[in-house]
Amino acid sequence: MIGSVLSRYVFFQTLLGVALALSVILAMVVLVDFVELTRTIGTRVGASPVLLGAFALMRAPMLIETTLPFIFLFGVMWSMFRLNRRSELVVMRASGMSAWKFLTPALILAVGFGVLAAVAINPAASRLNAEFERQRNALENGGDTGGDISEEGVWLRESRSDGQLVIRARAALSGGRRLDGVTLYVYELDPENRATFQRRLDAEQAVLRGGFWQLSNAWESEPDTEPVFHASLAIPTELDPDRLLERFGAPQSLSFWDLRRQAALLREAGFAAGPYELRWHRLLATPLTLAAMTVVAAAASLRLARRGGAFQLAIIGALVGFGLFFSENFLAALGRTGVLPIPLAAWTASTIALLGGLFVVSTVEDG
């Protein structure tokens, strides 16, 4: 009975520390992002502070997702140091509660929040970030995004030396390289350098190849002429496939639930799907990452306060946490380039940090 009461107490104390760290880091990232948006967007288009504040709040969930490991590192460390300084850990040990028992509630919180972050917070953050990008593009282009996904479908505009190509599609797949339900409007420059409508093409599908759109089952219509059917038709383009992929399907812009589907579509189209698989694995490893940060924080703060050295241990714990963060990003870069297998790149750093932290805790607890 006493053990369960103490476990609940440690759980809520840890939750309090994480909430405090979340509040501080959220305030910092929103403030810094607001200043950055004021510098980059506000000075160019004269956006109001209210709109820029709304933009900063839209981006906040994505930024919080990035800083979540540090939120748990500092939150758990603060709560454990607080329990230690008030000699509550000494009382718990005297009541027969080992370090493993009061570390378990913190680990349960970390794993639970990690699962929630991957399956719920990440999709919401992706949608808000996509809405931010859409509104920012519309603002910077005077209401015309030049390439966006809306309720009316996908719109692209390509300015060429001989005119313009405007593309509307029902859906964009494979990172924008495959368009379904396509309508193309072809404009050519007249002698006075004005864009004049020349023809319209309606196709079931358009696939971006090397320098051209490959249309399937297309109807070509010109003013004052009968429509002509083409089973296959190539339309030259200067659009960069990598920029299309970046706009319509960058791994960071997709939610946890969409990444595997996007990877499958890319593989089906013959494109590299590694970045999407890596992003999915890293989100899947979020509970492990937060558990590793929790154990690192506990290892740095379980030493009895009367023995001294608490500040030095806090610094070491913070450095180890930052080291884990940069190691994960370094291994992810190796995974993106194919040097390491993707599962190994996504899971190795957190696994090593968790095992190392557990070793330190067992050394402190059992000698």
Counting DSSP H or I runs of 4 or more residues, the number of helices is 10
Going by helix content, strand content and strand pairing, the class is: alpha+beta
Unreliable runs: 143-152
Proportion of residues in extended strands:
15-25%
* Count of individual beta strands: 7
Mean pLDDT: 80
Which quaternary structure do these chains form?
single chain
Total domain units: 2
The geometry reads as elongated
What order do the helices and strands follow?
A: HHHHEEEEEEEHHHHHH
Q: Largest sheet, order of strands side by side? A: 1-2-3-4-5-6-7
N-C termini distance: 28 Å
In angstroms, what is the radius of gyration?
A: 27 Å
Biggest sheet overview: 7 strands, antiparallel
Percent helix, as a range, is 55-70%
What features would you highlight for this structure?
single chain; 367 residues; alpha+beta; 2 domains; seven-stranded antiparallel beta sheet; 10 helices
